[in-house]
Design brief:
The chain is an alpha/beta fold. The chain is about 40% helix and about 15% strand. The strands form two sheets. Strands 2-1-3-4-5-6 form a six-stranded parallel β-sheet, with helices on both faces. Helix 1 crosses helix 13 and helix 7 crosses helix 11.
């Protein structure tokens, strides 16, 4: 007899977990219960009813679920938590919720293997509960959103996302590009997209001569910028997955990624010179940037991806397989 499964996760909105949840829900079979209410009070009542009904409670991202977790434990339901990031990187509230949640779940699913390694180091006491459920990718959907052709690519343009957030480590990348320009007499230009804040690295990034701090733009505009850029760099200290990497690759960019970027999981053709081993090592960053400028990697990477293996359908199938054996 198959287990009764309840998938609970916010899938309305545009943040990372919401987009992942929307994709998961789209590929779950109809017999998997999910939240349908939009009213927050009805939603809580619906959640209570479905926790009482289910055998396995899947919680995707933290949210405000303290009492629901207590109910699930009281009723001895199996609990699977899909971890999209560390609570401490969001807010003190989510960090507190994470600390309360983790002891009570039966399985922690990390959205990539690089993130799972970081999670096991951060929470070694729960390492035996952790497993990898790599985010699936809507390859065809993303290709449909990125309209290729008719856009001229600037061979000197480097693109960064995440603004001046410390976790993105964009400041050191901009410093590395500025040094490359001086040392190799090049004219590389860096466009930085993301929210500007006086409280993070934004002011220092903005002062670097080769940089234009562009702030927030719409998602559609950003997809066009990928088509106009030569090189996309994501040097994050922690990047649980990083859909922007996939979008940049499909947009035609060469890419350079920190070893902690989870999207590496879906890029089977990645090579050592495509990866920054130490996100604080400016010499490593400079070496890898110069290498990729001389040895473009987009064609190799995009043709080496197994789209079926990394699809949304495969990710949903694996989630259900884990739920059946938990």
């Amino acid at each position: 007899m198959r287990k009764r499964i309840f998938f609970s996760g916010q899938y309305r909105g545009e943040n990372g977990p919401a987009n992942v949840n929307k994709n998961i829900v789209a590929f779950l079979p109809g017999n998997i219960a999910r939240l349908k209410s939009r009213n927050r009070y009805l939603m809580r009542l619906e959640m209570i009813c479905k926790i009482c009904w289910c055998d396995v409670f899947i919680l995707s991202a933290i949210g405000h679920k303290q009492y629901e977790i207590k109910l699930a434990r009281l009723l001895k339901r199996k609990i699977i938590y899909i971890m999209h990031g560390f609570g401490v990187d969001d807010s003190p509230f989510f960090h507190k919720m994470e600390i309360r949640l983790l002891p009570h779940v039966d399985k922690i699913l990390c959205v990539s293997s690089p993130f799972c390694l970081l999670a096991q180091k951060r929470y070694p006491q729960y390492a035996d509960k952790m497993e990898v459920l790599t985010n699936g990718v809507a390859w065809e959907k993303i290709e449909g959103e990125i309209i290729k052709g008719g856009v001229k690519r600037d061979q000197n343009e480097v693109i960064l996302v995440g603004g001046g957030r410390e976790i993105k480590r964009n400041l050191i990348v901009c410093e590395a590009i500025e040094q490359i320009n001086r040392e190799r007499e090049m004219s590389l230009h860096v466009s930085v997209y993301g929210r500007y804040s006086e409280k993070d690295d934004s002011p220092r990034i903005k002062k670097i001569p080769c940089v234009t701090y562009c702030g927030l733009i719409s998602h559609n505009e950003l997809l066009k910028k990928y088509q106009m850029s030569r090189l996309f760099i994501q040097n994050s200290r922690i990047e649980p997955f990083g859909l922007a990497v996939v979008e940049a690759i499909i947009g035609g960019c060469d890419v350079l990624l920190s070893k902690n970027v989870g999207a590496i999981d879906v890029i089977s053709s990645i090579q050592p010179m495509d990866i920054i081993n130490d996100f604080e090592d400016i010499e490593d960053i400079k070496e890898k940037v110069c290498y990729i400028l001389d040895h473009p990697n987009n064609n190799r990477i995009i043709h080496g991806i197994d789209r079926e293996k990394t699809s949304l359908r495969k990710a949903a199938e694996r989630l259900l397989e884990i739920a059946e054996r938990v």
